[in-house]
Every structure is written in structure tokens, then in C-alpha cells.
């Protein structure tokens, strides 16, 4: 209770931690060795103490207060340890203060740092009346305010840590130096201290590490199914193995180290391998985790299901081969109810069965066509009486069908009547034009085989051209015409093709795909272009003003549909407008009518910027359709347009001088035996023909 202290040259102490460590703290000496006391903080412990009677303690406090009161100095009662305070003790302490004149009480907790500063500021105000009076806040209200303040400061500090610390390898000394200037760091350390700030930092680093480990785990688990597919793709090899034996089997595989790494230390997430992002091999001990075990079981189940699906496909194919209800040309919708059962639907999608059925149907149809072709050869006498190049009449076709009708090979194509009729027409064409192009044996024809064998002895430049179009051996042709014109011409063209729809142009065989269109081209079923059909050209047929109008409208609609599209393919589609005979083969139209149709066709061809073919230009009379020569010319023109080459339709006999602007055509014989030098053959011919550079300085090209 003394008001004057004297201790010359003594250091002022702030806390007991200074004892023995004075050099580590700020050093201040008592001024002149004397220190006047201006006020007192009377501290009362309100926590529950061991072997301590609060009533006796309060008596001691009362006696102490009486001594302080004699000094006439301000006194503030400070209740300490309120974070563990006993409610009765606090209430009794307040009652004690109420019995004294102007004695103020401040509830504090040094551990929680609640109201400590308020206790001193209250005493300062009593010493210096000029200062504003401090508002005394009860402990729990002050604690609530401080908790809110700490929470806000903590959020800001955690935001600062997340912005600065991006790697789980960061260390506290380096990070704390970076954060010291930031107010978020300063405020939180002031409220909670450096140790709690460090603790939050370590929690953030640990969280970053766990996130990194989880990312690596996901990478490894995503790679594990691929590793199992590569190392153990055979179900019989692992189906009955235990997990331990399966792991031994994996280790014995030659490519094991390509997919896995065996670490000296485990678990993998506690080793340096987790930070080696360049090495994506799976830690082998990861297989012991539940997630990896599930993936292994899923791999087994996948192999079992694949085997079951393969068995279902095999059983379905066997069912197709033995079912009497599956005949050539029968649609899937008609055959499905006879060949499908619940097990089939359980294991595979219907689209898979449809694909298998489609392939089986192709085999059936090819075999039926082959048998039918054999049947036609057996009945050769049916075709002897036809006129050369004549199309059989309906009566003759009726006779042929009547004679062959009882044959099973004829009935087998009952659902493919159009293709059966095309085979008959093709056979008739072969009877009167027995060449390798019309031979029913197609590529197996001896004449064709000889050419292929000779051609294989020589290297052709275009085969080594990497930019060559892989689809160059296919021609997609649209045939446009109403009232049956398109279908009739399509059948006639198919009759000129081989059994597998191949057509020979200049000695080379091309696959010919025809798409006859006779309806509204804006409907998907009549569209020029489909996902599986990219047209290379279009034959436009007409035999009347109405059919010509249909052609013009269809072309305009088709071109309108390509406006704004990137490819613009249909807008540049090569067109050929053809005037064909009246239906029924009549040549009864007058010359004036024929001339009118020709003039209209020429005008439309000029408008559409396309080729026009009429009976007069082809050298045939009105009443006959486009002949084989015209078809060959049209297809060669489309092939040239497709290849973007400037080829001349037809042939130029002999050799011409390059100076007259014509192409120099060189015919060479294929000779068996030693290869002949190009110089030995070409140079004498060129010298003999006096070949000069083309006009304009261009070189003559062979």
C-alpha cells in the first residue's frame, strides 16, 4: 500500500519471464531510483482454488482495501480468472464493492485477454480526470465482442496465408517474414499471438499436402485400369487367383515396371515419390488400398462381362445360321421376334445384334446372288433369242421369271426383286458383251487377273503419293428424275456393273454407289447428301416439261440448303442434264415437241451451268435411253472433277507434236523380264517426234 518506492538503478520488470533473460527484453530503469504510485489495481481471484476459502480471501481483500483507502489514491477492483470464475464468488465480490464508495469493478481474464486493457484505462481515468470515462463491460459481453473480433481477424489472416502460401513445402520463418508488413498478420498476432498464427499456417500447409496427395491418388487410380488391361487382359489367367497371387503375377510381367514402381519405404504418400510429378508410375503398395481393390474387382467383372457378351454374340450368330426364318433380304423388324430371347436383350444393345444381323444378311445375299448367277448360266437358252443390245420386253421378262420361278435359287431373292431383275439384265449384257468388265466372276476373271499381275510388276508414281485421296476408287452418283426415271436408269447402270457394284473406267475398277431420288429433296429421305453418302455428281433426267420443272426446282432447293454452310459441296456439285425417252419406250412424239424439249433443256443447262446431253448429240434416236458409252463418259467426267485433273474424255490415236497445244500421249508395252531404262525408251521417241516445250515456256509432261 506504499505510495512511494525507492530503488536506485533498478530495472523495471514487465513480467516474470524477464528474470534471468534481461538482455532479451527492453531495459528501462526506475527514474532517479524513485517511483511515485498514483493508483492501485486490487486483484481478486474468483476461480475455484485448491484448499482456499473464498470468504477468508474476501476478508483479506477487505483489510487490504482499508489500507489502500488511507492513501487517498484511486482504487479499481479487478476480478481475475473470470474464464474459470465461480458465479457466487463474482457476485460476492460485486457485493463487497457496492459497500464501498465509488469503488469500480472490472471482470477480466488474462488468459483470454478480456478487459485487461480496460482495467488499466479505468484506473488511468480516475487518476487523470481530464480523460474520458471508460465504459465498463461485463466479462461475457466483452468476451463475445472479442470473439467476433478474433474471428474476423482470423478470416483475414487465413485469406492472407492462402494467398501467399501455394506449396506444402513452404516454411514458417520465410512465410512469417513475408507476412509481417501485412495488417491482416499484425492484427491477428496482436489478438491471438504468434504461436496461434503459426498453428494456422501449419494447418494450411497440411491441407495443401493432403490435397496434393489426393490429386496424385486420383491420377494413379485413373491409370490403374489401363495398367490392368495391359498386363492381365486374359480372364483365365487371374479369375481364380487370390489378391496376393494376382500381385505376384503382375510383378512377373515384362512390362510391370512400365506401369508400377516398388518403393523402398511405405506408405507411398509419406515418401518423396508423391512429389515426383514427372513419374506417373503407380506405387505398388497403392494396390492394398480399398479404392484400388475395387478397381481390381471391377477389372475382373469387366472381363467376365466381355466374355459373356462374346458368348452372346456367338450364340446369336449360331442362331442366325440355324434359323429357317432368316432369309436373304428379310428386314430386321420381321426377323427379330423369331431370333431374339431375353438373354440376348440382357447382355447387349439391340444395335449390336442389328449390326451382326446386317453382316449375316450381306453374306446370305452375296451367296444367294452367286447361286442365282449360276442358275442363269444353267438356263442360257432363255437369252439366245434376244436382239443385240436390246432391253428385254415385259413379256420376255415374264417368260424368264416363269421358267425360273420354281427354282429355289430364284425364290431365295424373293424379297430383293429389284436386285434380282438387275442381275438378269446384267447377265443379258454379259451374254452379248462377254468382256472382263461384264464377267460375272468380277475380279476373279482371268482377263482382269492378267492385267493385275502385269500391273503389279511396275511401280506407279501415284501409289507413292501421300496426298492421294484414299476414297479415289469410289464414285457416289445421284440420279434425279420423277415418275420412275431415276429408278429405271439406276437399274440399267447396275446391269452394266459387276456383281459387287463395280464399274470399269479406262481399265480400272471403281466402286459405284447410286442414289435415285424422285421426291421432295427437302425431306431427309430424298436428300442429296447423308452422313454416309457424299455425292460426287448428279444425273438430271427429264422427258417432259413437268419432269424438267421438277429437276430445276430440286436443284434450286438443294443449293439453297447449302447457303451459309462451310463445306458448300452441293453448290459446286457437277451436274449433267439428260433428255431421255418417253416412258414405255414410245418414239411417237413429233419433231416439234422433241425440238422444244431440247431447246428448253439447253436453256436450263446454261442457267445451271451444267453439261447437256440430248439424243441427237449422242447419235441415238429419240425413244432410247442413255447408252453405255454416254454413261462411261459421264462417269469419267465426274471422276476427273473429283480428282481435280484436266483429263480428256476419249482417246487420241497416235502421237502428236507438243507444239500444237495437244497433250502428248505415249503408249508403252508392258514387257516381262528385265526392267527397261526410261531413257532407253523415252528419249528416242521424243527425239523422233521433235518434242518441244509447250507454248508459254511450260514443259511437256509425260
- The total count of strands amounts to 13
What is the CATH homology-level superfamily of the domain at 472-582 and 592-647? P-loop containing nucleotide triphosphate hydrolases
Tell me roughly what share of residues is in helical segments. 40-55%
Strand order of the largest sheet: 9-10-8-11-12-13
Describe the protein's topology.
Layout: E1 4-6, E2 34-36, E3 40-45, H1 54-69, E4 75-80, H2 87-98, E5 104-107, H3 116-127, H4 139-164, H5 172-179, H6 183-192, H7 194-231, H8 235-238, H9 243-252, H10 256-259, E6 260-261, E7 282-283, H11 290-322, H12 332-339, H13 342-347, H14 350-378, H15 394-404, H16 408-411, H17 417-432, H18 446-455, E8 474-480, H19 485-496, E9 502-505, E10 508-517, E11 537-542, H20 545-561, E12 575-579, H21 591-608, E13 611-613, H22 615-618, H23 628-643, H24 678-689
Parallel strand pairs: 3-4, 4-5, 6-7, 8-10, 8-11, 11-12, 12-13
Antiparallel strand pairs: 1-2, 9-10
